[in-house]
Design a protein that fits this description.
Layout: E1 2-4, H1 7-19, E2 24-29, H2 35-45, E3 50-55, H3 75-84, E4 89-91, H4 95-98, H5 116-120, H6 124-139, E5 143-147, H7 151-163, E6 169-173, H8 193-198, H9 200-214, H10 220-232, E7 237-246, E8 260-268, E9 271-279
Parallel strand pairs: 1-4, 2-3, 2-5, 3-4, 5-6
Antiparallel strand pairs: 7-8, 8-9
Helix pairs in contact: 6-7, 9-10
The structure holds adenosine monophosphate.
Adenosine monophosphate binds near residues 176 and 186.
């Protein structure tokens, strides 16, 4: 496995692979890898000749008061995990190679990124779409794999490649959870033992929505109220949002008739966590 830290070298390798008609698979990450990330790497591995994993904590997707500086990083461990999971290349560029001092061009999705996490984190998706677009241009993958854990992110990226005619197929991999149900996240490391146990309210709330729906409940407002009530019963949990939206348009729905995304963001202490499920998707 090779580690590449310059845009120029990465472009050269990608161009060579493309001229040899090799299939390039790509898994973008911000590092501090866990089994959720590794599931994306494993799912891509058998479908490509050249598997590229990027590890880049992208400053432009963090708000001014967010955790860019404290975001967990452990490059040597990440490289070992990528090697064990048979990535061919890890692209790990320094900030200054990705962003010139006078950097001034951004890619912005203007519809799907307005609600949910976009409402709570202004500018976040603009940072995400911009960096993913740059990474697609540099790596030139045939396909890229994203986690359903960040459901809105996948929808936004999907829209970006559609609307800008970017020739990359977007694939989605399911949410990987800890044995007790908590969705894996690099940010789980911020949780104290007490917060870690309170954080279970997210997966329990998602399970509650699934249970109500499979019991025949189709009214979004009823499911949402029950979800809010459960989260509020946890003393350290603060709801950022509980949303029940059409899985394609991300617009709120009243009844669960088509595939519907049930998404939540909850603060446990100062850590903001997200989780989701899709209901009505046969
Ligand atoms: P991040 O490093 O948080 O930017 O995540 C990189 C990729 O891993 C994104 O596509 C995430 O959706 C995905 N991911 C993160 N956590 C999980 C998880 N628990 N299960 C599946 N995919 C995940």
């Amino acid at each position: 496995m090779k580690t590449i830290s310059t845009v120029a070298e990465m472009r050269e390798i990608s161009s060579r692979a493309r001229s040899l008609k090799q299939t390039i698979g790509f898994v973008p990450t911000m590092g501090f890898l866990h089994d959720g990330h590794l599931s994306l790497i494993r799912s891509a591995r058998s479908c490509c000749d050249l598997l590229v994993v990027s590890i880049f904590v992208n400053r432009t997707q963090f708000g001014p008061n967010e955790d860019f500086d404290s975001y967990p990083r452990d490059l040597s461990r990440d490289l070992e995990l990528c090697r064990i999971n048979k990535a061919d290349l890890v692209f790990h560029p320094p900030q200054e190679d990705m962003y010139f001092d006078d950097y001034s061009v951004f890619v912005e999705e203007t519809r799907l990124s307005r609600g949910l996490c976009g409402a709570a984190r202004p500018g976040h998706f603009k940072g995400v779409t911009s960096v993913v677009c740059k990474l697609f241009n540099i790596i030139q993958p045939d396909f890229a794999v994203f986690g359903q854990k960040d459901a809105q992110q996948v929808r936004v990226i999907d829209r970006m490649v559609r609307d800008l005619n970017i020739p990359v197929e977007i694939r989605t991999a399911p949410i990987v959870r800890e044995p007790d149900g908590l969705a894996m996240s690099s940010r789980n490391t911020y949780l104290s033992p007490e917060e870690r146990s309170q954080a279970l309210c997210l997966s329990k709330t998602i399970s509650l929505a699934e249970k109500l729906h499979s019991g025949g409940e189709l009214r979004a407002s009823t499911i949402e109220s029950a979800m809010r009530e459960l989260i509020e019963s946890y003393s350290m949990a603060q709801i950022d949002y509980v949303e029940i939206v059409d899985s394609g348009s991300l617009e709120p729905v009243e009844k669960i008739e088509a595939p519907t995304l049930v998404a939540i963001a909850v603060r446990i202490g100062s850590t903001r966590l997200i989780d989701n499920t899709v209901l009505g998707d046969s």
